[in-house]
Specification:
About 5% of the residues lie in helices and about 50% in strands. The chain has about 425 residues and is mainly β. It has a single domain, classed as Porin, CATH 2.40.160.10. A 16-stranded antiparallel beta barrel has the order 3-4-5-6-7-8-9-10-11-12-13-14-15-16-17-18. Strands 1-2 form a two-stranded antiparallel sheet.
Length: about 425
């Protein structure tokens, strides 16, 4: 039996776009501190509580006697992509891909306890071990010990690092594909098993801090950095744990600034290397909106220690990993909702995003020095309603080795 969710645990259609003026909306699913209710500019706390909180649903509890509040929520999101790849001097290739469909299940137990999960299906199907994959992205219990100020969270959680890893529903970002920095530098989507504290002690100041499973250094690569090292809570070796934390501040309505940090030992999680291979990372991000104008920026730096141990080849079989010691990337994105002043409920947002990233920054050895990449993306998103986005863009990829490529993307994304 599906019940209407209370205001503190909403389906994914409640994800608000703090990209200002993109769409009118009245709720936010704030991934940085669990499924909670944020207020629109025109609503007070009392008004929002009255407008958004459905009548409480009570179920009998044999253990405690009295009835206790309980509600289960179901939602989801997904995206379909068409891509035309046009390498310089090569043949154009095209593909269409149901990139992902994600299902959300949440439950409010009452007494401050809740469950939250996301199950993802990628690339439509799996057959004989080929095709896409089915995997969990999140599955955790949260205990609100001091309302929104202090909550304990334990289970499979998103690593609180950067912008897109925390909020990545398709209508929440511009362009068909996620920013390359949020794929090749920050390995979105990045989840690990852990336990930690989250909360909003004062309005506009949010935090997350976890002790969690670490990465596996054996699967780091030159081209994709630490991405292959995610263990995703699948028989994950935890001899090398990790710490991750993020603080975000909303100093004024429509402006958010974030600082993320990560440190973990990755060598102990594999038998392929005897070194500790520490990974330390920091990210700065911000987004701001005003009168339909939007700005979004992110910088991320990752340092991988003991890379000489990963590159050693005493047996003549090749290095354990050719990953770079320093990994860096960033982007700046600007957009404007041309329907902002018309109050139609629709949004049409042309945008431009400039990215630069290098997974082998400052490498002197040419054997382990890959190209840096400048990428320019120009396009537009149209949202007839907040939960559906039609997208088109063109990407101009200009790596330093001269292997240029242009990509034309079409897509549709949804959430509910």
């Amino acid at each position: 039996m599906l019940l209407r969710p209370p205001a503190r645990i909403l389906p994914l259609s409640a994800v608000a776009l703090l990209l200002g003026g993109l769409v009118p909306t009245s709720t936010v699913l704030a991934q940085d501190h669990g499924p909670t209710l944020d207020l629109p500019p025109e609503a007070s706390t009392a008004e929002a509580s009255s407008a958004e909180t459905p009548p409480s649903t009570e179920t009998p509890n044999a253990a405690t006697g009295p009835s206790t509040p309980s509600a289960t929520s179901v939602g989801g999101y997904g995206e379909l992509h068409f891509n035309a790849f046009m390498p310089d001097g090569g043949d154009t290739t095209t593909e269409i891909d149901l990139h992902r469909v994600v299902f959300f299940f949440g439950h409010e137990f009452g007494h401050g306890f809740r469950f939250y999960s996301e199950l993802e299906v990628e690339h439509a199907f799996i057959e004989h071990g080929e095709g896409g994959e089915v995997k969990l992205e999140q599955a955790y219990i949260q205990w609100d010990m001091l309302d929104r100020a202090l909550s304990l969270r334990a289970g499979m959680v998103l690593v609180p690092f950067g912008l897109t890893n925390r909020v990545h529903e398709p209508p929440s970002f511009h362009g068909v594909e996620r920013p390359s920095v949020d794929s090749l530098i920050i390995p979105t989507t990045w989840s690990e098993g852990g336990i930690g504290l989250v909360g909003e002690p004062v309005e506009g100041l949010r935090y997350e801090a976890y002790l969690m499973g670490g990465l596996n250094a054996e699967h780091f690569t030159q081209g994709k950095g630490i991405r292959g090292g995610r263990q995703s809570v699948s028989h994950a070796v935890t001899d090398g744990p990790a710490l991750a934390a993020r603080v975000s501040l909303e100093p004024t309505l429509g402006v958010e600034l974030g600082l993320s940090g990560y440190f973990g030992l990755t060598g102990p999680n594999t038998d392929a290397v005897s070194a500790s291979v520490p990974v330390s990372a920091v990210a700065l991000d911000g987004r701001a909106t005003r009168a339909g104008l939007e700005a979004r920026a992110e910088l991320a730096y990752i340092h991988v220690g003991d890379t000489e141990a990963l590159r050693a080849d005493p047996m003549g079989t090749g290095p354990v990993s050719d990953v770079g010691s320093d990994i860096f990337g960033g982007y700046l994105e600007l957009g404007y909702d041309v329907l902002h002043t018309m109050e139609t409920g629709h949004a049409l947002v042309p945008f431009v995003r400039a990215e630069w990233y290098d997974t082998t920054l400052s490498e002197d050895d040419p054997t382990f020095n890959g190209p840096s990449v400048f990428e320019l993306t120009m396009g537009a998103d149209y949202r007839p309603i907040p939960q559906i986005a039609f997208k088109v863009d063109v990407q101009f990829e200009r790596p330093s080795d001269g292997n240029d490529e242009n990509v034309v993307d079409l897509g549709i994304g949804w959430m509910f």
